[in-house]
Amino acid sequence: MAASPDGLPAMSSRIASLPDTDHDVAALAPAAGNSLGAKLPGLLLVAAITALAYALRQIPGIGLLSPMILAIVIGTVFHNTMSTPLRAKPGVQFSMRRLLRIAIVLLGLQLTFAQLVAVGGRGMAIIATTLVATFLFTRWLGARLGVERKLAELIAAGTSICGASAVIATNTVTRGSDEDVAYAVACVTVFGSLAMFVLPLLAGVLQLDAHAFGLWSGASIHEIAQVVAAAFQRGQQAGEFGTIAKLSRVMLLAPVVLTLGWRAARSGTGGGDAARNTVPVPWFVIGFVALAAINSLVTIPAPVLHWMALLTTILLTMALAAMGLETDIRKLRAKGLRPFALGALAWLFIAGFSLSAIKLFA
What pTM value is reported for the model? Predict the structure, then answer.
């Protein structure tokens, strides 16, 4: 049975505050509208926005943007001009939570442990050190700039790991608002896109060979698509190594999410002594690692991997479309320009830190 309009705000508040477990989701199912019929209007709306995002990428110039970015923009515009219908809420909530977690699990099929070997010990050390340093620096600077901790953490994750995918994965344990997610995604999109154009122009000036530039691109640019676009501008070898370096960086998403969940439990943000003594292990992170392991041990046909990668992107796009449908621009404006400045400084830090490490140790 679908939830009544009066019950929706309370339901959303309860979902945001409870731990992310199948038991909790099941307990809330009656209030959220557990039947397919209740979810269908929201799923159709999210699917329509996803289709529009893919269609817009056929326009010259817009194709440089990922469908995920376009979807959250379209969803946000729709919500703030026409308002998301109440009957669409169950499907939108389902897309934001369950479809997102399924997509993160499937992301594991794009990775293999052999990629870590290909990057090499020094390369992985540079990537891991850059990730940790950028994440800690961004959180520290966010506190200095007066940016809310959850938003700073999402910007830190998106900058240091893998853009929008990292933002929405990290938010499963950080539990920021939809506006926090939208703002963080906007930051990593803007500065990742700038990096995509700027880094290739600097490669010659900095005298970086194909290997070094590929490693720099993979270690510092935000989105996978942005890395591919930037690295291949310096040739096939740079493009291939940049892609491998970036995917190795994505592999670190799992330990980062687990660490943040552990910190949240230890700090008692989940509430009570039990929360402080329990380390949450999100099921989707376990699934992510498991599929990466399967992909490393079993030869999966290339066409299957291709279609699974496409399905993963579609599901992530649907999740971001749903987040756009829950994003209030007035709340984004209220956050001001400080988070945007944080995103800019975090981008400069990751580019400078990784370049220095490559020059010194690679």
Answer: 0.70
Mean pLDDT of the region 27-51: 77
Q: Measured in whole angstroms, how far is the alpha carbon of residue 290 from the centre of its chain?
A: 19
**122 close to 362: Cβ distance less than 8 angstroms:** yes
Domain residue spans in the chain? Answer: 107-316+330-361
Average pLDDT in the 296-316 region? 91
Cα-Cα-Cα-Cα dihedral of 74, 52, 160, 282, to 10°? 90
Cβ pair 136, 162 in contact under 8 A: no
Q: Is the pLDDT of residue 273 over 50?
A: no
